[in-house]
Amino acid sequence: MEERKSKLTISATKENRAxxxxxxxxxxxxxxxxxxxxxxxxxxxxxxxxxxxxxxTMTTRHEILGKGIFxxxxxxxxxxxxxxxxxxxxxxxxxxQTKMPHTMALQRYDIRNPGNAGVFEVxxxxxxxxxxxxxxxxxxxxxxxxxxxxxxxxxxxxxxNREKQTQLLLxxxxxxxxxxxxxxxxxxxxxxxxxxxxxxxxxxxxxxDAMPDGVLVVDSDHxxxxxxxxxxxxxxxxxxxxxxxxxxxxxxxxVTISDxxxxxxxxxxxxxxKYGKHQDGSEFPIHVTCGIVNSDDHNQKIYSIRxxxxxxxxxxxxxxxxxxxxSVLDNMLExxxxxxxxxxxxxxxDAAARNxxxxxxxxxxxxLTDRFPGIDRTEMFSVLEECMAHRLTMTQDFEFTYPxxxxxxxxxNIQPVPEGLFVLSLEITDRKRKDxxxxxxxxxxxQMVQERTVQLREANKELESFSYSVSHxxxxxxxxxxxxxxxxxxxxxxxxxxxSQRYLKVISDSSIQMGHLIDDLLxxxxxxxxxxxxxxxxxxxxxxxxxxxxxxxxxxxxxxxSIGPLPQVFGDPSxxxxxxxxxxxxxxxxxRDKNPAYIEIGVEHDDGEFVTFFVRDNGAGFEMAYVHKLxxxxxxxxxxxxxxxxxxxxxxxxxxxxxxxxxxWAEGEVGKGATFFFSLKKA
Length: 683
Description:
Elements: H1 2-6, H2 17-22, H3 24-32, E1 36-40, E2 46-49, H4 51-57, H5 61-64, H6 69-72, H7 84-98, E3 102-103, E4 107-108, E5 111-112, E6 120-121, E7 124-133, E8 139-148, H8 150-157, H9 162-193, H10 198-210, E9 214-218, E10 224-227, H11 229-235, E11 273-277, E12 283-292, E13 301-307, H12 309-330, E14 335-340, E15 345-348, H13 350-356, H14 360-363, H15 368-371, H16 379-390, E16 394-401, E17 407-417, E18 420-427, H17 429-491, H18 498-529, E19 535-538, H19 539-553, E20 559-563, E21 568-571, H20 573-590, E22 597-606, E23 610-617, H21 649-659, E24 664-669, E25 673-681
Parallel strand pairs: 20-22
Antiparallel strand pairs: 1-2, 1-8, 3-7, 4-7, 5-6, 7-8, 9-10, 9-13, 11-12, 12-13, 14-15, 14-18, 16-17, 17-18, 19-21, 22-23, 23-25, 24-25
Helix pairs in contact: 8-9, 9-10, 17-18, 18-21, 19-20, 20-21
């Protein structure tokens, strides 16, 4: 049994854990420690808490003991982006897994206000979670220590004096450390006077060893009689190496003790920045608090030492960050300003002063109405009031009239901040002027386009009427030419030589060709004047009827037809029938030299509004360099003796598709065929 007691270094077994934590002496000592400490079981149940922690979190001991930490301290439902509970849970899990202390980054973790149900107060904490191991090396407790740095963060946010905020943090740290010294002194006295509590004293020693601050006890000769593990790690010495060494070898300055019991003076009076000495001789900044041990031997002194290296580094980084922040704002092209809740300028950069046409010193500390009389009656001020009252973010353009009568336009980006409103503005007077000029120009252009459109329509009507008249008037002379040539051929039958007969045949064929050209020209002209009647058209029926009719006329040509499913469209049935007829006849004509000919009709693309049809053949094809000529009137890419035609069919196709709001185009390759595309509005 004695051997088992001697091996107990930090806590008892799980069976007597409750007995130890309920012990009145240990409980009184732990609860009085100045630090904000909470002891958790591995299941994250609260089993002990210091008075300082209760005060900081506005809770009572009886309402939180035995409960889970996240049951007592949930996330603020008013801050949906809060990650406090998940961050703390990960830290506790890491401590349980690694059995090593874990220092967390600064956390926002709001707490409930017991005096105002449902209301949470914003708090920022600096947490450290440290495991306490049993004799078998398992985690038996977790010491959860935090520091309330809400005021420090608020001071940084408000852009307050750096030195004042640093001193505030030191004052708070000092108060915590002095209280820790006082309680540590009681622990040493209890160890000397209560031998039967040796196991409990060792547990208390383990708790002190687990604390993040170093603790030293020295005698009247400044020889170290006790040092916790943090001291050894802080100064770089192996365990127990500091015992019996002189305090002067660790700290550059000695600490003056003016009070016979415990030092309670302000840090500015007596506790200063000092430097500790590593084993390798290098120095590092520390903060030292000293007191006299409350025991029969008043010659013992206890020192609480905190390594300030991280604090100095963070302070330096914050200073550099603030310099960069101010440099960025001061050198921005946009005007930046911070306006308080009482409408005073708290900050403005050079661009904001230029936009205000005043010196920066004349504006800082003064209200908007002081510097710009009458601004409270403007739309701009009304929007600012709304954003201030309801904490709204808004972007809006404003016209602003200066006291001297000049006018300028600004684009405002308004963002609520803790101090009031942050306003980022950019002068857009030139842009507004150009926009107005563009608006007027567009109105004039629209008017000109409308006038030209009317003129173009009238010209097209006149051109179509002229084409119709000319085509109609030419038909009679052509009939006469063809008739008289035929009569001449019959009357001189057998009297003309072969050359004369060929002349008459050329005249006859040319008159016939001219007649076809005139017929097609009349058809083209009628397409422009024909009344458009929109209906739901079944393209599948039109194509099948057209293919049947053409197949009957070309029964000697071997054609493989491939017709895919075709949708319904909006359009004029007779016009669309002409489109498919012209394209399919075109494919049959130009693939007649292929055996077999292959003609495919289908849908290429359907975007829900327009559907793209295609007619593809494996015939003569064409050079893509001349594709722009395909749909022109009288434009042909092949000789008349190769493929007959007038060059009007594709022009009619394009005119009809254009009247339906669609497009036409083609692709081809010489000797490999061509594909003609057109789009129509889907029904």
